[in-house]
UniProtKB/TrEMBL annotation:
The keyword NAD applies. Residues 353-455 form the Pyridine nucleotide-disulphide oxidoreductase dimerisation domain. The lineage of its organism: Bacteria, Bacillati, Actinomycetota, Actinomycetes, Pseudonocardiales. Gene3D superfamilies: 3.30.390.30, FAD/NAD(P)-binding domain (3.50.50.60). Residues 6-315 form the FAD/NAD(P)-binding domain. This is NAD(P)/FAD-dependent oxidoreductase. Keywords: FAD, Flavoprotein, NAD. It holds the Pfam family Pyr_redox_2. It comes from Amycolatopsis samaneae. It comes from the Bacteria.
Length: 464
């Protein structure tokens, strides 16, 4: 068995692991970055990047149709869409990411990693890496598969297949009304598939305000998606090379592919965590610096989906910066400031996690979606009907909501629905994180004519 010693070992070379490794290396440490699949991870090849590449053409076509005088057709060219997506993903070639790691002073190690002792990681069973200071786990998450009768008799799509397929299925079933479900349902519908979205509730995106789910549901239907609400999947069977779906209401559908988009779980299985007394398949509980609380010695850290705290790429990278900086500082004997607003802590997931659903219409949200129970919080909700939105698209339909702490008169949350509202969410994030008083926010004058004028209308509706 070969053996090597590093200051820090990072397991998982997705965006989160790359950031953690880069921050530790920037602090002057010798870092190994271990990955058993592709350097660049899920987001780069199978999630954020390819899914948005598939969604953008349909959104753009819908937007163009809302402005008279723009010459547009009615069809999207799937082959060109797939080619553009493949350009962004490099067709799965991670050579550029490996080169980046080496350029950043990081040693890339390819193989399956398992923690085999304190500060010890064994790769592929025969290469032992020892960390002088810390091991960081950044392995992300994997799909959760529901126990549906017959599902094991077919080969369903997961999010990877949905974002990497290069042929449009004649009919696609999508199980699940979360972000992956609605985004992929709309993407494949605009590419020409007959899409059936199967959801258990009245509307998709149940964690967001009802008006968001209703607007997205209407947008899906406009794109040709058949939404089967208040339903579910009772069983699956293979029939003549296709898949028959039995819905809970007794109706049946025959599709060419079935996408199961029913959530994800932390990817902690097979990492050897049981040797440390930790449960496999469960999230790693960390403090705000990323240190795994249940492991003595302060040498095990984690960031990203694997912690279960805020399973979004941008939040994982944010947490990775804190963890990487903490490990580097401690390794050099430097003080670590654990205050809530220190660069060594990741606290945003306690109150200000931004997220965008890239459907048409878009949904952009940060912080609370509704008032806190028993509080004096106030919810203000209005249509997005300003000069900027009217010029942006004929018949612009959108809605905005803010949640205000009336005792401190600061924002606690904001939700926007409408075409191109993704660019509104960062202003809301800054206002929430910065605890900007509404009386001061009133003096942040929105440019005319932009959709951001909605901020003025929201503050007016509040009473300023």
């Amino acid at each position: 068995m070969s053996a090597q010693t590093f200051d820090v070992i990072v397991i998982g070379a997705g965006p989160v692991g790359e950031v953690a490794a880069e921050r530790a290396a920037r602090g002057g440490l010798k870092v190994a970055l271990v990955e058993h699949e592709r350097f660049g991870g899920e987001c780069s090849y199978w999630a954020c990047i390819p899914s948005k590449a598939l969604l953008r053409p349909g959104n753009l076509l819908a937007a163009a149709k809302r402005v008279p005088g723009v010459p547009v057709g009615d069809r999207i060219d799937p082959e060109r869409v797939f080619a553009r997506r493949d350009w962004f993903t490099g067709k799965g070639d991670d050579a550029g990411q490996v080169e980046w790691a080496r350029g950043a002073g990081i040693e890339p190690v390819r193989g399956h990693a398992a923690i085999t002792g304190e500060r010890e990681v064994t790769v592929d069973g025969d290469r032992v890496l020892t960390a002088r200071h810390a091991v960081l786990v950044c392995t992300g998450s994997v799909p959760s598969t529901p126990p549906i009768p017959g599902l094991d008799t077919i080969r369903p799509w997961g999010s990877r297949e949905a974002t990497s397929a290069s042929a449009v299925p004649g009919a696609l079933g999508v199980l699940g009304g979360g972000v992956v479900g609605v985004e992929m349902a709309q993407a494949w519908a605009t590419l020409g598939a007959e899409v059936h979205l199967i959801i258990t509730g009245e509307r998709p995106l149940p964690r967001l305000p009802a008006f968001a789910g209703d607007a997205v549901s209407a947008g899906l239907r406009d794109a040709g998606v058949r939404v089967h609400a208040n339903s579910g999947l009772a069983g699956v069977s293979a029939v003549d090379g296709r898949t028959e779906l039995e819905l809970t209401d007794g109706s049946r559908l025959v599709v060419d592919e079935l996408l199961v988009a029913t959530g994800r779980r932390p990817a902690t299985t097979g990492l050897g965590l049981d040797r440390l007394g930790l449960a496999e398949g469960k999230p790693l509980d960390v403090d705000d610096t990323g240190r795994v609380s249940a492991v003595d010695g302060g040498w095990l850290y984690a960031a990203g989906d694997v912690t279960g705290r805020a399973p979004l790429t941008h939040q994982g990278k944010y947490a990775a910066r804190a963890a990487g900086d903490t490990v580097a500082a401690l390794a050099k004997g430097e003080p670590v400031d654990a205050a809530p607003w220190s660069r060594f802590t990741a606290t945003a997931d306690h109150h200000a996690v931004p997220q965008v659903v890239f459907t048409d219409p878009e949904v952009a949200a940060v912080g609370l979606a509704d008032a806190r129970a028993g509080s004096a919080d106030r919810v203000v909700e209005i249509d997005i009907a300003v000069a900027g939105s009217s010029l942006h698209a004929d018949g612009y339909a959108g809605r905005a909501r803010i949640v205000v702490d009336t005792e401190r008169e600061v924002l606690l949350g904001a939700t926007f629905v409408g075409q191109d509202v993704a660019e509104l969410v960062h202003a809301a994030t800054v206002a929430i994180v910065g605890e900007v008083p509404l009386s001061r926010l009133w003096h942040a004058t929105p440019a005319f004519p932009t959709i951001s004028e909605v901020w003025l209308r929201l503050l007016e509706a509040y009473g300023l």
